[in-house]
Amino acid sequence: MKKIKQPLYDYVVLDIETTGLKKERDEIIQVSAVKFKQDQELDYLDTLIKPVHKQISPFIENLTGISNSDVDNAPEITEIIPKLNDFIGDQPLIGHNVMFDLSFLKYNGLNLPKLEFVDTLDIAQAAQNQLKLPNTKLETLKNYFGIDNRSHNSLNDVKTTAVVYQKLRDAGYLQKPSRPKFRQWKSKDYFYDQFDNSLSKNEINKKRALFGNQLIDKLVVPENKSKLKDQIFVFTGDLKQLPREQAQKIVEGEGGIIKKSVVLKTDYVVVGIENPAVVVDGKSTKQRRAEELNATKGKNIQIITEEQFMNMIQ
């Protein structure tokens, strides 16, 4: 695969939606691709995908509008990859933050070793100062160019990306992205700020996942941030709406403290879905310890459900 910069007029624009951020653990739930010839729509491939091992969480359903019932009768990704291979063929590919999409598709069997591609995110970053854009999110570009499309549906995002590419290309912005000149050491938050200014919430999550971390400042509403600061949280069981690791990152990102076990200073125990094979009467050791400290030591450890935790941060 090779990134290219020359102007394109015949190409395929691609976008996918997924159950989460990691290709090894999460699954594709929508694939959309539109083929253009001389900038005119020629053909399209658009399908929902039924995940095999992963359910669509409420968080992803809210973001994409795709529910588990929507994909009940959809094909599996193994049926779609050969069709997508044939659909793209030898045409160059365009996408916004397209490396994320390609990483998922390659992991699931896409085999186009000679594929050439363009990332509109790169082009937008190069044009940002001249266009006086506050950031280079696809949503921002859509509004800047007056494109009327709903976001976070992959077919709509494909059509938006196509128009954005055409506008940027015709304005002469197909050039190497400018990069910041480092004249002094930057704080660790500098790089995360760059992602904040460049990507949408969904794209932020995608990018940060590639670096083994998550951006959480968009997930917690401002008035709830103080509820987490300096509070000690212990999680037990699996969560339904988001991975437990992500929930812990949210707490830490807002100044809270994560502990593996319940101690006297614990403020909250968040109870998820417990494994009935290892808990007694539906209560984990952590929950029992919190109840014991409340009863014998006069503590006030709050034992809350996942839903109550989500209400704290939203």
Automatic annotation (TrEMBL):
One of its GO terms (molecular function) is DNA-directed DNA polymerase activity. SMART domains: EXOIII. CDD domains: BRCT_DNA_ligase_like (cd17748), DEDDh (cd06127). Residues 223-314 form the BRCT domain. It comes from the Bacteria. Keywords: DNA replication, DNA-directed DNA polymerase, Exonuclease, Hydrolase, Nuclease, Nucleotidyltransferase, Transferase. The keyword Transferase applies. The keyword rRNA-binding does not apply. GO terms for biological process: DNA replication. Transmembrane segments: none annotated. Pfam families: BRCT, RNase_T. This is DNA polymerase III polC-type. It comes from Fructilactobacillus lindneri.
